[in-house]
Amino acid sequence: MTKTYSIKIEYSPVYECIASFYAYINRKEGKNLYLDNDWRDETARRLPPSFAAELADERWEVLHRIVLLAAQSPAKTSVEQFLDWLGAIPAGEIYERLAPWVSAIPLNLGEIRDRSLSLLSRWHEHYFAALEPQILDRLAASARRFARMAEQMEPPELVEEATNGIRIEPTDHLQQVVLAPQYHCAPTTILDFYRGIATCLYPVADAAAGPDPLRELLPLAQCLADEKRLQILRCLAEKPCTLGELQQQVSLAKSTVHHHISTLRRAGMIRAHFADSTTAIGYSLRERFLDRLPELIMTFLSSGGNGR
Length: 308
Prior knowledge:
- Helix 1 (13-25) packs antiparallel against helix 5 (63-72), helix 6 packs antiparallel against helix 8 and helix 11 packs across helix 15 (288-302).
- The chain has helices spanning 13-25, 27-30, 37-46, 49-55, 63-72, 79-88, 91-98, 109-126, 133-149, 155-163, 213-224, 227-238, 243-250, 254-266, 288-302, and strands at 6-9, 166-168, 176-182, 190-193, 197-203, 270-274, 282-285.
- A hairpin with a 3-residue loop joins strand 4 and strand 5 (197-203).
- With 308 residues, it is α/β, with parallel strands linked by helices.
- The strands form 2 sheets. A 4-stranded mixed beta sheet has the order 1-3-5-4, with helices on both faces. Strands 2-6-7 form a 3-stranded mixed beta sheet.
- Helix content is 54%, strand content 11%.
- It is built from 15 helices and 7 strands.
- The protein is globular and about 55 Å long.
- It has 2 domains: 6-203, no CATH class; 213-306, Orthogonal Bundle (Arc Repressor Mutant, subunit A).
């Protein structure tokens, strides 16, 4: 029997700084985030024009390795502390910190570090340093809550609870999952696998404004209003399925089925199962949403004008 992995739950503003930067520059993913184009436009107006123009064509393909490096860093109590540490360590030490976990490491680590440091430093100065403190306070509170839950729950169940439906399966290779809260990319989870470790930045959607029953209820209602998504739920009620099996059942293009599955997963209605890779190995029904839905409806209806 495969031994389960360990969980490292940690809060750091560094993860949120990275997530906020990613949410801003990744316009393709932006349509799936709660923070919409209005947030991006408002943020762009706060940035120096030259920096905003620079970010309009920024790819920043090293995001996930920066997250892994942050997980390995001894200095991340504040963003400033992490940036000072990142700027001071030589490229050789970066290599040593990444080598146990990453199979292919670019030769120009110093150049990549300098570019990342420049972007994150200016992003922190012009945007993140002015972030509302209550957002970071609620992220820290979420990490403390899951740390308490970790004493009672197995790691796969804890990850599923935090991510609202991502299940990281134990394997012979996976040793540890780093679980950290983030707000800017909600309801998306930023998940990555390396050799023996996974980083999972889970969404805390209510970090800015507090609990809102409509925010959780609306995605569920939208999923139930789509015939193809209902068919997918019915298939998964019978048995877990792979993407290919679901495609055969609903007779749609694989990309369309994947879109529906992603929407259902973000709504917390299904599980996506992962094993040592960011490509899901299968999907299953989360029956708990059947109990959660009437509870959310009653909460919303009884909230009067406070629902939103």
